[in-house]
Amino acid sequence: MGSTGGSLLWTACLVTSFLKYGSVKVSVRDRTLEVLQGDSVTLPCSFYTMGPLSRLNIIWTLVPLSDPESPSQVIVYDHGQVIENPALTGRVGFVGAPWSADIVLNGTRVSDSGTYRCVVNNPPEPGDPGIGELSLDVLVPPSLPVCQWEGEMDVGGSVTMSCAVEQGVPAPEMRWEKVEPDPISLPLDMDGDLKGTVCIANISAQTSGLYRCSVTNPLGTQNCYIKLSVYSPPDSSPGILQGVLLTLSMALVLLALLALVLWIHRSGRDRKWQEGKEEERRDEIRRTPTFLRRSFV
What we know:
It is a single chain. It is built from two helices and 19 strands. The chain has 297 residues and is of the alpha+beta class. It is rod-shaped and about 180 Å long. The termini are far apart. Residues 1-21 have low confidence and may be disordered.
């Protein structure tokens, strides 16, 4: 009985010592969070401590996704005082401190994406501070893309069409296609995540039409358009044929006119010749004696 009572007393002393002097325990219920740009999000961080909270210290830090080499301090709770990062003033705050280490982030931006760390220390409790981590992704629908083209729009030339979008998280999927008059998908070359180009060589009249660039992520789709008109010089063959036919026609007209002139000239000459013969005959009759004229008649 005495031995059993001593053992229970020793165990109770160990439990009391652990509760009194154990290190702070931290837990994060959601390790991955997503929020739409502009909305608010709560970053959870719960802690367990047996000591008084008069000297409680909570530090939130961020390793930005856009610049992992430049971690920054987000907000601090120290001895009842709250210190915000000046760049986040008015957008960040504790929720329920000192009883909770949760913070709320308002008006979220893409630059808020990254890994957040919650560090809780409560002197005089010994041991290392309690640490919790979570990742935050700020989602952004695709912005309106910008379509441009450059090149020679004559038959046989080449043209390059580009499509660029400023933002979209996750990175939007890009697609180029001809929509009119003959729908067809086009292969594109990506320059990073936010720009894609299409090159068309040896263009022809069939290249003309309406082209569309689409950018899509889970939050939506945006489009921009380009209308191409390939210049095709007129076919010179019909012109040559028309010229030949016109020349032949003119030649025939000239020949006809020449024949008419020759005919008129010849007709006039024959008429004069006949008139001359008639005049000679009359002269000869006049010179013939009267008694002989009957033989001429």
